[in-house]
Amino acid sequence: MIRNYIYNQILLLNHNTYWVLEINDKGYTIINSFNIKFFLINNNNIEKLKIFEKINLEGIIRNNVFTEITKLRIMNNWDPRYYIFNFMTNWDKIYKNFIFPILYGVNINYENQIFKNASNSGIIHLLIISGLHFQILFLFLQKVFKKKLIWITYSILFLYWLMCFKTVSVNRAFITVFVKFILSKWVKDKKTQFLFIFGFTILITGNLDILKPGYWLSFVLYLIVSSSDNNVNWKSIFINYFVFWCISTSIQLFWKNEIYVISWCVSIFVTPLFEFLFLMANIFVIFPPILKFLYFTCEFILTIISNNSIVIYNIWWIQVFFSLISVLLFFVHFLKKNRK
């Protein structure tokens, strides 16, 4: 009831207000206050818009596409991302083509070959769409700044979240990290912490967002990562990673229409490399030459994998099989941990 009231107030305050999220040759992908995407076809009657431009737009919508425009007005924009992203885009194209989509989820063009190959191999779903990149950055910052400087870790993570496009998985990952930090002061039992976080995030998440695969994929991956924090044995780390990969792959294949067999198999070995490249991109975000090297490295690896893969079309029995494998591995993994 309270959530619905808040949503209605947001809708009233931002009626006909949209933000530009993606730009391509055909037009603009825009979002409203609830991150619902619409497409604005590019034609001579539309003034050139920029990333995170705030606009007041009225017109006729069919299938989330503005087919006719009756009013378009550029509004005052106080979002710092608008100025940062457009400054960086004018500085070097690498930010528009690679850094903004990978690090912040902005202006992702799946027609771009590197993102098409990353999607086919499942890496982009595993690292970005699931929100796992948020968890990886947090664990890395924890190791760098230790407990005495933990406030720096949370400050950087908060700034990173502000820069990101607020997907359901990114928001869930962000809320989980901060709620867990607050709970740890009063609740020591990890199972109780998880139940509280699980219930809290569902209550504040929109009904449609809860049904999205990215939300549940990020939850499952968070469970495995958080349960593996204390493992120092290489054998345990390897087993946890294998279970992690199998479960995430099974979940993704349930929603896939095409399976790139070799790409998915090889991803178990190259995913750690892409995790490392993601961290390097964050560290050297203001150094275009290094970012270009990272871009070409990713492109080279993904091209080799995609060009040597076998494609099979997903059918119902494959989806059922992988779903059962995912559920079985999940419960066996955590039942074994509880017995220990």
UniProtKB/TrEMBL annotation:
<keyword id="KW-1133">Transmembrane helix</keyword>
<feature type="transmembrane region" description="Helical">
    <location>
        <begin position="237"/>
        <end position="255"/>
    </location>
</feature>
<dbReference type="Pfam" id="PF03772">
    <property type="entry name" value="Competence"/>
</dbReference>
<keyword id="KW-0472">Membrane</keyword>
<protein>
    <recommendedName>
        <fullName>ComEC/Rec2-related protein domain-containing protein</fullName>
    </recommendedName>
</protein>
<feature type="transmembrane region" description="Helical">
    <location>
        <begin position="195"/>
        <end position="225"/>
    </location>
</feature>
<dbReference type="InterPro" id="IPR004477">
    <property type="entry name" value="ComEC_N"/>
</dbReference>
<feature type="transmembrane region" description="Helical">
    <location>
        <begin position="153"/>
        <end position="175"/>
    </location>
</feature>
<feature type="domain" description="ComEC/Rec2-related protein">
    <location>
        <begin position="109"/>
        <end position="330"/>
    </location>
</feature>
<feature type="transmembrane region" description="Helical">
    <location>
        <begin position="316"/>
        <end position="335"/>
    </location>
</feature>
<keyword id="KW-0812">Transmembrane</keyword>
<feature type="transmembrane region" description="Helical">
    <location>
        <begin position="261"/>
        <end position="286"/>
    </location>
</feature>
<feature type="transmembrane region" description="Helical">
    <location>
        <begin position="122"/>
        <end position="141"/>
    </location>
</feature>
